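Hi L.,

You mentioned the student needs an example of a multi-chain input paired with its predicted structure. This one should do, with 611 residues in total across all chains.
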Amino acid sequence: MPAKASRAAFGEALIDLGARDERIVTLDADLSKSTMTAKFAKTYPGRAFNLGIAESTMIGTAAGLALSGRVPFCCSFACFLVGRFETIRVSVAYSQAPVKLVGTHVGVAIGEDGYTQMGLEDIACLRSLPNIPIVQPADEMETKQAVAWAVEHPGPVYLRLTRQNLEAVHGEGYRFQFGRAEVLRPGGDVSILATGGPLWNTLEAAKRLEADGIHAEVLNVATIKPLDEETILRSVGKTGRVVTVEDHSVSGGLGGAVAELLSEVMPTPLRKLGVSGFGESGDARGLYAKHGLDAAGIAGSVKKFLAR
Amino acid sequence: MTKADLSRLGDIARECRVQIIRMLTHAGSGHPGGSLSVIDILTVLYFNRMRYDPKRPVWDDRDRLVLSKGHCVPAQYACMAKAGYFPESQLVSLRKLGSPLQGHPDRVALPGIEAATGSLGQGLSMSVGMALGLKLGGKSSRVYCVLGDGEAQEGQVWEAAMSAPKLGAPDHHLDNLCVILDYNGIQLDDHVKKILDLEPLVDKWKAFGWPVVEIDGHDLAQIDKALDQAEAEKGRPTFVVAHTVKGKGVSFMEDNPEWHGKSPTPAEAVRAIREILGLPESGGQPAAWAAPILAELAAMEKK
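Structure written out for the whole complex:
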């Protein structure tokens, strides 16, 4: 499969699912061309609602729709969506309204638009709510399956999607399982837990490490909440070293979640790779290099960490 | 509305006022002022307008009430108990550990509550979504949203106000939505006019595309008639401005910001209830249902 942005895969999946399921509706805040729901709106005009640049009421309206039998996909850039945290907290989470929150344009990989458009703290915020699962699919195939899962999941959901193309990491026959992490590459020296945008680079880094005699085990953590404790502990119990990789703040994201888990049940040396400080404008490749999220940066960090 | 209806609703509203005072006194905290200002509106909704079945609180064809000013939920609990959602004896568990009668509404804890509210400004958006969802589902149910006046300072209210008259067009206009503003003029810190005046309020909502009906929010017949008008309105949701008095029915609470968010002492509660019932400060013959409540509060006073 050619590389595809997870937001694009989401938009395609929604059109297919919408044909079979009348309950599916979309809500947007003037970004439907970017969140990729615009085609759904063209295909099913009576089921797509553009609320204008008013994210708070979009989220509340989605909650009301969810509580009256619809399956609303409530979409915007992750930062604008999760920026209305208090509305998500009460209208969606506490009300147990099965809204499908879709945050796109995550991480520094959006590039040139700069920090104000980058979803960098969304995982940290939403992890603190008791009942919103967080899923970040790694490629087209996983995204489409995760969207289908979200429709059927009886509660609220947060899907974290990229602007940039993602290389396929799954072969035919792959089945997304909510709540499960997946070993993409086995190894015994270090567990590298990656999610979303930098996962491909992580696999590339593992190849480079292999050339240096370091056998890295790479896990795709698509479900960030709830964490697949069993799979993670099995890997970490074997390797005794953990590196996390994500295009999100180094505070409170996948790295934070894994650190919380391990510090309580299996204290293990850990290195968190992600974004420190604010993002900035630039090309995506350059930004990944600056934050050490390209293959060279990840491989270098792992080597330094293991030599400690 | 017939004279008999008026008399029946008046009796219910009086009884609910007594229960509000009673449960807040037991709880030792809560919001009497706004609960007393909104109770006549809720009485008409629960006992003369809304379709619901307390035995099947999530019946698909029910009408929905979203009390966006969630801090005044004691008024709603009083109506729900009277309607048969749960026993009236449970009212005194308000705000107590393990009670479904949370300090602010919790739809998971108490079936029949439609939305968690109390983080102000969110209820109208949820009501808009419900109204749209019901239309999309081919339901004829109506959605009532009760807003606070201080709450209308929240930006999200105005996002929803801008959206609701247009959303769903052309096939699913939200004329199944009616918003009622409990305009009692007082918020936590002080009078609304002194904190952040909402005026010219009617002009603002009209400018946003809403038909506006102004009423005395303590006149049961006027409330009912406004809801008739809302139901007759086609193609748009309706906004009802209900002019009310905070603390209505208890002279020492009326129009006094002090009583926004503090519960009465048992002695104050007895005074308040005697006044609501039209009894002298001492003596007189309370109705059979009210006598045990007065005795219970008098006993609390002695403790």
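You could point out the following to them. Residues 3-27 of chain B form the longest helix (25 residues). Residues 3-264 of chain B form a domain with the Rossmann fold fold (CATH 3.40.50.970).

Best wishes,
N.
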